[in-house]
Amino acid sequence: MNCSKRLLRKLLLLKIIGRYLMKHWMINHFIIASALVFLVAHSDAKDMDASLPQTKDFALLALQSNQQKLPILIMYAAQTCEYCERLEEEILAPMYRSGHFNNRVIVRKVMIDTIENIRDFNGNIVHADNFAFKRGVQVTPTLQFVDANGNQLAPEMIGYNTPEFYANYIEDAIDTSQDAINSTKSEN
């Protein structure tokens, strides 16, 4: 009986040690997993900060558009516009970062509530808000699809009211714009 008590004590001790190790093993793995999740989340947050490129020179952009035979997508936005931020974060920036627009359209953003000057398609220097006003923009966000001369190629998109369909609307507008550019190219 003395041997079986010792054996029981050893088994109980092994069980306690096993639970202790398992508990600490799980805690260590939890800490490692948490650190990995934090690093992944932090790197995603940096990617989310990447926004659409802004331009201050549409004359230069027009040259690029002519050389590459690509339409230009202009996003008009304002710093205080919540829908502009959502449109960019939810739709445009992910499409831009993924390379989805490459060789299809040149994408640029214009902040209309800045005091900065912009060179328009004719090479004239104008304030950002005047540039937008002259192009008929009254509400942000507004997307315009234009050629190298600033001529509209597809209907502009005003506001951001159907997020689940918005990417498809953009795709349709890009296709329409490309068709217009290609038909002009084939006429020349």
Q: What features would you describe in this structure?
A:
The chain folds into 2 domains: 1-49; 50-187, Glutaredoxin (3-Layer(aba) Sandwich), CATH 3.40.30.10. It is 57% helix and 16% strand. It is built from 5 helices and 6 strands; from the N terminus they run ααβαβββαββα. It has helices spanning 2-49, 58-68, 82-97, 128-134, 163-187, and strands at residues 72-77, 106-111, 117-119, 125-127, 142-146, 152-158. β5 and β6 (152-158) form a beta hairpin. The longest helix has 48 residues, at 2-49.
CATH architectural label of the largest domain: 3-Layer(aba) Sandwich
Any idea what the CATH superfamily of the largest domain is called?
A: Glutaredoxin
Please give the number of β-strands: 6
Number of domains: 2
For the record, give the distance between the C-alpha atoms at the N and C termini, rounded to a whole number: 105 Å
SS element count, helices: 5
> What composes the largest sheet?
4 strands, mixed
Order of helices and strands: HHEHEEEHEEH
Percent range for β-strand residues: 15-25%
Q: According to CATH, what is the class of the largest domain?
A: Alpha Beta
CATH topology of the largest domain: Glutaredoxin
